[in-house]
Design a protein that fits this description.
Blueprint: E1 2-9, H1 15-24, E2 29-33, E3 41-46, E4 49-54, H2 61-64, E5 69-72, H3 84-99, E6 105-107, H4 115-122, E7 128-130, E8 151-152, H5 158-167, E9 174-180, H6 194-204, E10 211-212, H7 215-222
Parallel strand pairs: 1-2, 1-9, 1-10, 2-5, 6-7, 8-9
Antiparallel strand pairs: 3-4
């Protein structure tokens, strides 16, 4: 079984366009949201320009992420809370209530975690937790609380990894997990922008030998 899954962090308003594109190409993704920052607007300097970090609102979750999976990126993009397990549980509850989904996934803030942190998360209702250190291979994780993506969408290694994934026999187990942040698609660089990403989606879509899944669906399908 060959599984393709995408994930995006930080819940900026560009998720809206990504979700529209994913639906148009028949693909699925998991979006890791910072539940305590929904609706937030903060001035920011990005790619040489002044802009505003604007996160999606709680009221729009069910429609914006229709057909996609919502997961937690904690409440405040940190694991340094006095009781991080309680904060994670609260984030799961908030996102479940606002979206109508049962939220059970987590992305570690900054993509970094320790073995002790993974064990703490394992004791919560979280069913899988993702970091942000690409493996650049198509393997299935040994530990679903230390799940690393295959690649960032704009990594130099990504085109070759897609070639290997598409060429692999359907009966072999392969997992291609592509991650990023929707705001990165506003980067004018031609290896990051919307056009580049859409070409990637077009190439991966419509394959009869590929199973298109959210992170949660992939984890449930591949867990021993």
């Amino acid at each position: 079984m060959k599984i393709l899954t995408f994930s995006f962090d930080d819940c900026e308003i560009y998720d809206r366009r990504v979700c529209d594109m994913m639906r148009r190409y028949g693909l699925k993704a998991t979006f890791y949201l910072i539940s305590g920052q929904l609706g937030m607007k903060v001035p920011f300097h990005r790619y040489g320009q002044d802009t505003v970090v604007e996160r999606v609102s709680a009221a729009e979750l069910s429609e914006t992420y229709r057909g996609m999976e919502i997961a937690s990126h904690t409440r405040a993009h940190t694991m340094d809370a006095p009781d991080p397990a309680a904060e994670i549980e609260r984030s799961l509850e908030e996102l479940s209530r606002w979206s109508g989904q049962t939220v059970r996934g987590l992305a570690y803030p900054g993509g970094q975690y320790t073995a002790a942190m993974a064990d703490m998360v394992r004791a919560t209702r979280v069913e899988y937790a993702r970091g942000a250190s690409p493996t650049h291979d198509l393997s299935v994780p040994n530990d679903w609380y230390a799940w690393e993506p295959s690649c960032h969408y704009a990594d130099a290694e990504t085109p070759a990894l897609i070639d290997a994934f598409l060429a692999a026999p359907h009966e072999e187990t392969r997992l291609l997990h592509i991650f990023g942040h929707s705001y990165e698609l506003t980067n004018p660089d031609t290896r990051h922008n919307w056009d580049y990403f859409e070409r990637l989606l077009e190439r991966l879509s419509g394959r009869r030998d590929v199973e298109y899944m959210t992170n949660g669906e992939a984890a449930r399908a591949l867990k021993n």
